[in-house]
Write a structure and sequence with these properties.
Blueprint: E1 9-13, H1 18-29, E2 33-38, H2 41-53, E3 59-62, H3 68-82, E4 87-90, H4 105-132, E5 137-143, H5 145-148, H6 154-173, E6 180-186, H7 192-198, H8 204-212, H9 224-235, E7 246-248
Parallel strand pairs: 1-2, 1-4, 2-3, 4-5, 5-6, 6-7
Length: 263
């Protein structure tokens, strides 16, 4: 299927690892030009080199996304270099376990900057170019924590609630520019960050098996490539009448009856 993404310039925050890397690679395979915004330049460069080695194209900018000035400069630099922006995938973030009981004001606000504020900033600065593009699209990667809670992660849950709310708000505000805005809600997706978290348990394999046993469809983790496939579809004109949606790519983890795991 031709998704008509050839030469579309798409910002992917945190696009060098995990879900972001899968999205960057998938966009390049469709002929789009992913532009990675991330703080680890070595990882950014490695991902772009891999993309080019597979016949695609892409760019990267070293950006500390929690710094508003760096977000603004990165977008300006991109516009100077490529002259256009056709889409944004807000993906970067980290579950930093800032809780209600043990957390602090400083930690809470820092987490919001790492997980929510840059979602606003990157799109805010990219918007003039998105308005010039035909059929521009924005994807916000969000987490189930906003809907289900998790415990011990107030800041991350709040940030994801904000991501979901911004998705609906922007979908309304940007209707007049024909800019579509959707979110992909992630539950249990096996990324390097997830693997690192699981490894902290005394028996990582047992912990992982306990988690996957509760995922209704196929009792397995979601693959980053499956999140990427949905993101790429939502960025394309094939989803031209879809906006303001929170789409769960999670094997039914959030919404299906837990009794299903015994079937």
């Amino acid at each position: 299927m031709n998704l008509q993404l050839q030469n579309k310039v798409i910002i992917v925050t945190g696009g060098a690892r995990g879900i972001g890397e899968a999205i960057s690679a998938g966009l390049a395979a469709e002929g789009a030009i992913p532009v990675i915004f991330g703080k680890n330049e070595a990882e950014n460069v490695e991902t772009i080199e891999n993309i080019k080695g597979n016949g695609g194209n892409g760019y990267q900018y070293k950006v500390e996304l929690s710094n508003p000035a760096e977000c603004k400069e990165a977008v300006a630099h991109l516009v100077r270099d490529l002259g256009r922006i056709d889409g944004v995938v807000n993906n970067a973030g980290v579950n930093d376990s800032v809780s209600l009981e043990e957390g602090s004001y400083e930690g809470f606000m820092s987490s919001l900057h790492k997980n929510l504020v840059h979602y606003y900033l990157v799109v805010h600065y990219a918007l003039p170019q998105l308005k010039k593009s035909k059929n521009a699209a924005i994807i916000n990667i969000t987490s189930k924590t906003a809907e289900t809670g998790q415990g011990g992660t107030s800041a991350y849950a709040a940030a994801n609630g904000g991501r979901n709310a911004l998705t609906r708000e922007w979908a309304v505000e940007l209707l007049k520019y024909n800019i579509r805005v959707n979110a992909i809600v992630v539950s249990e997706c096996f990324t390097p960050m997830y693997a690192s978290w699981v490894s902290q348990f005394s028996n990582p394999d047992e912990k992982l098996a306990a988690i996957t046993s509760k995922i209704p469809l196929q009792n397995r983790m979601t693959k980053p490539s499956e999140i990427a496939d949905m993101a790429i579809f939502l960025l394309s004109e094939k989803s031209g009448h879809t906006t303001g949606q929170l789409i769960h790519v999670d094997g039914g983890y959030v919404h299906l009856d837990r009794a299903l795991i015994n079937l």
